[in-house]
Amino acid sequence: MEENIKRIPYGVSNFVSVVEQNQYYVDKTMYLPLLEEQPVSLFFIRPRRFGKSIFLSMLRAYYDIAQKPKFEARFGNLWIGSHPTPLQGVYQVLHLDFSLATDGISSLVESFDEYCGMEMDVFARKYESYYYPGFVQDIKEKGSFVAKLNFLRTLAQEYGARLYLIIDEYDNFTNVVLNELGDEVYHSLTHASGFYREVFKKFKGMFERIFMTGVSPVTLDDLTSGFNIGWNLSVKPEFNQMLGFSEEDVRQMLQYYKDAGRHNGDVEAMIADMKPWYDNYCFAKDSLDSDPKMFNCDMVLYYLRNYIDGGKAPEQMIDPNTRTDYNKMKKLIQLDRLDGDRKSVLRRITEEGRIVADLVTTFPARDIIKPEIFPSLLFYYGMLTIVGTDGQRPVLGIPNNNVRKQYYDFMLEEYQEKHNINLERLMDQFDAMAYKGEWRSGLEFIARAYKENSAVRSAIEGERNLQGFFTAYLSICNYYLVAPEMELNHGFCDLFLMANLTHYAVAHSYIIELKYLAVKDSDSKAEAQWQDAVNQIRLYAAAPRVEQLRQGTQLHCIIMQFRGCELERAEEVQV
User: Fold this and answer.
1) Would you say 170 and 219 are in contact if contact means Cβ atoms under 8 Å apart?
2) Under DSSP, is residue 212 helix (H, G, I), strand (E, B) or coil?
3) DSSP-derived secondary structure letter, 571
4) Kind and range of the H or E element at 513?
5) What is the residue-wise DSSP string for 305-359?
6) Domains in the chain and their CATH numbers?
7) What does the pLDDT look like over 516-561, one tens digit per residue?
């Protein structure tokens, strides 16, 4: 029956709502026994949109003594329903979401205290029957959050209550402080007798178990001396798949909705469509060869929701709602305040797609500005993932097109800030490229922008950064997936514009080779370089995989030769 088909839980982070309102749930309960085997105070870092909140909601429903009678109804059909642990339903759970603890920077301490105090009052109402009549009123009368905690600590010992603390976005509050008020205020809150640090000291020894999640390990390091019993699970291989969806998870979900008659798409084709955009996350070096790569779960639900509604993949493969996440990430890693060294790291990642770097598991806020820390910070925000190893060090790479587009957007914003060009006019040129094969006006438009961008000329030299400029502007064109440095016939072409035929009836695809000359280089050197480029691009076009990549479109091989900032020559090579 139609009404029995599970709804898609897009945007839903409440486990109880998902299971009680007949929504689809990807079972993660098999990790509960593994978590219980770990130390009692745990930290777990994952990027946004990876299912942290619903996982914590599931923890609450499982361990909450007040919800124990509903265990069978909620968990009976899940893995843990047949494998319950002795700790199921034995705890009084205090849940705090620190993303809700900031209500205006001007009243920072007050808003944090007010929010946490309110949650303590909710806790008291929920568990009053486990204490005595009037417990709620007594908690309310304690003025501050710390006073309420101290009162609960005493009573919990007296009544033999077992307490579990769950904190979502534990780093959100301090990240807001760090970005809005600066390092000095942040330091005063998290060091010495700062109130935030003092609160965490109260947690230690009071709660039998603690589980905290966030998107950055910065606060963790700064609080370590005050809260020095936390165990960080973030890069441990046994928890690599605890959040996100595996390919098999995605396959089962798509097949479920196909069998239910909600879509008639080819499941394997849908997975192939999603993989370049949402897949390829690995969070533990030791899981590279053993675990499947993980999908961003919110993006998968976005795709499926659109596919069921429209009978096809969404026109925009990136969920527009994630734009807010990108803006938050920009603030948190201080993209607007990057110095030259960190900008060069970002450009290198954007252009090469990967970087070899030690993965730092925790670091204090003062180290955010260090170039050697920067790749680790990008890793925790999901902007890099583990794609290989180089000796003992991990190779961190851009996981997918969704994230790659964010890098291009950053570069584009930087270029546009220095010298704004009309992007609508450029889109008109892309129409001609994609549907008519008229490439010259569009590519020369970008070449003129390069010449006119004096700030870029002063900061950029050579072919590599010329490629970065072209990639940033070509990335606004949804007709193509822009693949820099694609390996073809044992060489690497500068740019491959692969037609996005899933969404557009594109008729033309492109290999673009960019060549750079210094202003003083001779004409004979220019001619030799041009001939080398002709030979290179013909070799690329002859690669066996090109036939598959061009997908029936007409392939154009374009060489553009620059002398300094000036486009000297641009021609199509017949192959």
Assistant:
1) yes
2) strand
3) E
4) strand 508-517
5) HHHHHHSS--SSSS-GGGHHHHHHHHHHTTGGG--HHHHHHHHHHHHHSEEE---
6) 2-234 (3.40.50), 244-319+333-395 (no CATH), 419-573 (3.40.91)
7) 998 899 999 999 999 999 999 999 999 988 988 899 999 999 999 9
